[in-house]
Amino acid sequence: MGTLPDIFYEDLSCLLSIRSVNGDCGPTGPDAPLGRGVAQAIEAFLAIGRRMGFHTVNLDGYAGYVQWGDTGPVVAILTHLDTVPAGGEWAASPFALTRREGKLYGRGVCDDKGPALVSLYAMQALRESGYCSTCRVRLIVGGDEESGGNRCLARYKKTEEAPVAAFSPDGDFPLIFAEKGILRITLSGTFPPEDFTLSAGTQVNVVPSSACAHWHGETIRATGVSAHAMAPSLGVNALLKLGRLLRERGADHPLLRLLDIASTEGLGICFSDELSGPLTFNPAIAELDEMGRCSLQCDIRVPVTVNKEAVVRAIRDRVQPLGFTLGAEQFLPPLHVPQDGPLVTALLGAYRQVTGDMRPPVSSGGATYAREFPNAVAFGMLFPGEEITFHRENECWSEKSLQTGFDILTEAIRAVCRVYGA
Description:
Blueprint: H1 6-17, H2 36-51, E1 55-59, E2 63-68, E3 74-80, E4 98-100, E5 103-105, H3 113-128, E6 136-142, H4 151-159, E7 165-168, E8 171-172, E9 176-179, E10 181-190, E11 196-200, E12 210-215, E13 218-223, H5 238-248, H6 254-260, H7 264-267, E14 272-273, E15 277-278, E16 280-288, E17 293-302, H8 308-319, E18 325-332, E19 335-336, H9 342-355, E20 362-364, E21 376-378, E22 381-382, E23 396-398, H10 399-420
Parallel strand pairs: 3-6, 3-7, 7-21, 8-22, 9-20
Antiparallel strand pairs: 1-2, 2-6, 4-5, 5-23, 9-19, 10-17, 10-18, 11-12, 11-16, 12-13, 14-15, 16-17
């Protein structure tokens, strides 16, 4: 198969150097509605596409796309260029490309700047091979994936053509046919002021890696290990750790009582199904101020067949006796695509042709842009058994996996175009 050229790594270094942290990347404006960093990342990516000779469109700083072909139905590759914050301790700068011992390091290297760029180079390789597609291959790059708001694709849908089929290299191989629903809630209450304040977490879809409290003149800190909220067990929750430390010192407060039960068991939400596995719960962002105002934001990944109202009722019943109300409820419905459909068949065929791996598709607690279109799935780029470093410090990607992923995406574009071509 093909080999990625040296200029790929130069382009990746350029993209990683742009601080496109969702919600914290500089001022917003008419040409940068999601922040200056996101706008710069989108334009930098489109510039690479133009350098390759592709047609590009910038959608007002919300999103953009690189297109190969002028006729036929649209087949889309769905990626994003915004990132989560670069918290925790990094061995090197998170906003620079570091190559060490066969791995690439940097915030966004595998979620999702790296896969976006690999997709672009796969389009170029296929075009240069002489392949003539009967589809328009459209690589869409968004800037608001990590918040879950997806304002970028809302902007895309206002004026642009929907794809007949799409895949998002923002998940796992061999293919994700089901994604859990995502429920985000805020538990809040106001209590008599005490000599006690607390703060933890910055992003609701990340396990908090630091937490701090001021209690009766003492500053108490806890550190943890960040992880993606789809798999909170891979991290160490600093907020829960801080709660235990305060309890050991004899502290008592409704917030601490809430943290005592902040688990699937404690809240009575041990739901599961065969299709997508168990519900997961991430208490992510907590605040308690001098006036006694308290809030806890949580990220919950709900199995595909579980009614989210049952989850809400169970939590409300447990937290109301502690003086908390459940509000600010947001829900992203689950995704479930038939495993025997033409899109899944084509993509699995490409994966199996390159790897020889015949294992079946899987489900995930993650959320991808695949939910935004009727005929779409997540496809790569994490291989079975690989360590998940999304949303963690020292985010990295194996160079061997990157190269194999490039080969798979090249074949996948060809396979999908063969099925849906005019």
